[in-house]
Amino acid sequence: MEDYSEVQVQITRLFAGFFEYEFVTPGQGTWSYARALEDLYEPIEGDGKAYRIKTRRLMVAEHHLRKYDEALLQQLLQKPLECLPAFEDALQNFIKSGVDPVLLRLLEETGNTHISIGLKGDFGRHEVSPRELTSAFLNKLVAVFGIVTKVSLVRPKLVSSVHYSEATKQYTTQQYRDVTSLRGAPTNTTYPQFDASGHPLSTEFGLCKYIDNQTLHIQELPETAPPGQLPHSTEVVLEGDLVDSAKPGDRVAIVGIYKPLAGKQVGNVTAVYRAVLVGVSVHKLNKDSQTKVTMADAREIKKLAQRPRVLDLLGGSLAPSIYGHDIIKKGLALMLFGGLEKTLENGTHLRGDINALMVGDPGVAKSQLLRAVMNIAPHAVSTTGRGSSGVGLTAAVTTDGETGEKRLEAGAMVLADRGVVCIDEFDKMSDQDRVAIHEVMEQQTVTIAKAGIHTSLNARCSVLAAANPLYGSYDRHISVTRNVNLPDSLLSRFDMLFVVLDSMNDERDRQVALHVLRQHQYRPPGDDGRGVAMQETIHDRRLSIDQDPDDLRMWLKVDTRLHGAAAESEQQVLTTEFLRKYLIFAKRKYARAAAQAAAKGGPGSAPSLVMEESAVKRIVDYYVSLRALSPTQRNFPVTPRCLETIIRLATAHCKVRLGDVISRTDVAVACALMDHVMRREIVGEEANAPKGNPAARRDGEEGGEDDGDDDEDGGDGAQQAAQDGDQEMEDAAAATAPAEQPAERPRRGKRTRAEEDGEGPSASAPSQGAAPSRRRTARNAGNGVSNEVAATLAAAGVQSVPDGHEEAMAAAAAAASGSEAFPTLESLTAEAKAAVVSQIGAMLEERGRDDLVEVSDLKRILEAKGVSISSAALEGYLLWVSNNHDIEMAKGNYLPDIAYDVDSKMFSFM
């Protein structure tokens, strides 16, 4: 039989030519893995000539191996324990040949020249779920798809130990390998106590070498599990740079070697083995990791953001299959974008995430709206009220199975950090469980003090909840708090509360029925009419996983059979993929600004909001008008929390249009949305109650609720805004409310003086005995309210700027970079060029290779570091770097590999 070492050498020779092979990509020229070695290191910020190791794993694509030698690929899949170490040896020899001197020098300086191989791509029948992992795949390379359900702590694993003998003054080294090691046979795991001569040995723990080790469990995807059977799971072992690459709840595809482990039973080895998957690479399948915003996408997003009513388009594209609910859709769109958080100097945290609650009659698509948000949000976690406990939402204390130590396991809200948590059947939760989320909804932290553990976990997420009324259907004659039976302390933490009613209207019912029937009649192109398969396989999901992001469409084709009136009116609808890209692009834009402010101002700082003076005044006037409403005209008490809500909503609308300054229009949209949330209509006997009867007034406080969404009584919202004499509020109300939805407001400008003083027959006026009117009282106390608003705005970090500040900034930027010809490179100093290159490398480290960078962001960071450079000169240098990367690298001069787009003034990393 051929010796194993000779087989290893032969396989190494076969892999040797792979790294030098030139792969031809249509439209992009040739490419080899010699260029991929540049991804293994990065420049150190502040020094353009110093580098450091970024990762010790080179990712190899399966289709490249197939193109190079398909027989070699099949051998790798069938015998990975022989081929994978040989593959890594070939890579090490390739690096030692001097193809990349920088990488070779860095590896030699660290004393460890080993680089691991990671694999990605389509592995055919070797792509399986945990249920399909049978003995046929033992010691073979497989790609397992599943959901991470449990992750252990990262612990050091001993690789080699060093022992010292006092008698001989000699050091002894011993290597350790277990069954999960990819090289060599397992070794004895006990420490040597004596050397060969019988002298005692002492372990030098500081000289021992360790490697990070972590164990996780992945469970079968629910859509691939057979009907009526519980999903299967398998254990995965990750080492080195792969640890902490996934967290509970992530959908992953883990490529690894399926290895058997001998089991023990009362000290004896049993014939029944268990198997683990030794990871080689981990790929996330979540929407945020799959969605890549290309340069063409960024160009279209910027054009779309310039539309005057872009919120209408985003709201209508949120869930086009659901009829109506335009107000809710626009509010949920603002919730997805969110505001800006801030941490004050005294440690107080002001959240930027927006919380929303939907309550109403059964069967009005509340749960479907939750699903639509989950489908679009880059990071979303779903749960239900009855199926979740307090610790399940926050964090639970468990006992580690290996060490017996107490440890924390994250709940749904902690897992949804920087995302959205959707809670259906919110009313079914017990009061004890609901109390646990009070801290999360305002402070956005989870504090644990039990079992000897005292810590605080981040839960910076938006909460979207749906609840049914207490009595089955919504009663308009009682307040919303009595309808949902939720405490005021919890309701006040929701920025938006939408009441969705099942109103009876013949015309509307006809439209809903036609819309639902169209959903069943419509057959998309390519549908053969066979229906949905009873069981989906991993290979079926591969079609969606491998979809090229560049092929995604921007507009959804509107079909008259499916969209009905929307198609007849030529209403445009964005695709779900492009809507997700729009959201990711906007959130990254402002997250970068927050990161830059934090780096400049220290931990906990955030960028100050910039708001026009007229917008600040509009908030003051609107807050005064809300405070002037009687209890029969509003749903909840008006507190400073309402001010923070208005700021968050206005900031979200500013982010929707990718603006830098919160304008009066942004505030007007926020105020119009708050009108639908705060104001109430008067129904039933309350409308006819005597004005002077205190009991009637008390009963009126339990009055009906304006659903703000589904009423069909007429469209007087814009008319009333026009009566107010506020054209911007009229535009915002029209942009926020459908034509058929009323906005119940006191009609200003047509009321008599007697009505204003509480003596007229107005249904919404106070009783005759009420001495000075609320409006007059609010007018007299206007200065005090203005001071309260100013204090709240200052605490939120809002800076006031003159009106037209954003337009002036845009005009100045256009004038600065409006020259057609870029300045020559000689106009830039060597220090400025080095600073640009160094900062691009730092951005690559911080943001990742898939991110897009705006030239304005780069210029702002350079100016903060004292580097003065004009926009035109910076754009010209970036264009030169984009065109001359290969030439300068061949000369031994490092340049970042970027692609610069002149039209969008953005560059991406290659």
What does this structure look like?
One of its GO terms (cellular component) is nucleus. Its EC number is 3.6.4.12. Pfam families: MCM, MCM_lid, MCM_N, MCM_OB. This protein is of the alpha/beta class and 910 residues long. It folds into five domains: 4-122, mini-chromosome maintenance (MCM) complex, chain A, domain 1 (2-Layer Sandwich), CATH 3.30.1640; 131-285, OB fold (Dihydrolipoamide Acetyltransferase, E2P) (Beta Barrel), CATH 2.40.50; 356-494, 3-Layer(aba) Sandwich (Rossmann fold), CATH 3.40.50.300; 609-720 and 727-801, no CATH class; 817-909. 38% of the residues lie in helices and 20% in strands. The protein is built from 36 helices and 31 strands.
Structural class: alpha/beta
Please state roughly what percent of the residues sit in beta strands, choosing from under 5%, 5-15%, 15-25%, 25-35%, 35-45% or over 45%.
15-25%
Mean pLDDT: 75
* Major beta sheet summary: 5 strands, mixed, barrel
How many beta-strand elements?
A: 31
Looking at the structure, what is the overall shape? globular
Percent of residues in helices comes to: 25-40%
Number of helices: 36
The end-to-end distance, rounded to whole angstroms, is: 47 Å
Extract low-pLDDT stretches.
542-551, 682-730, 735-781, 815-821
Q: How many domains in all? A: 5
- Give the C-alpha Rg: 32 Å
Spatial order of the strands forming the largest sheet = 8-12-13-15-14
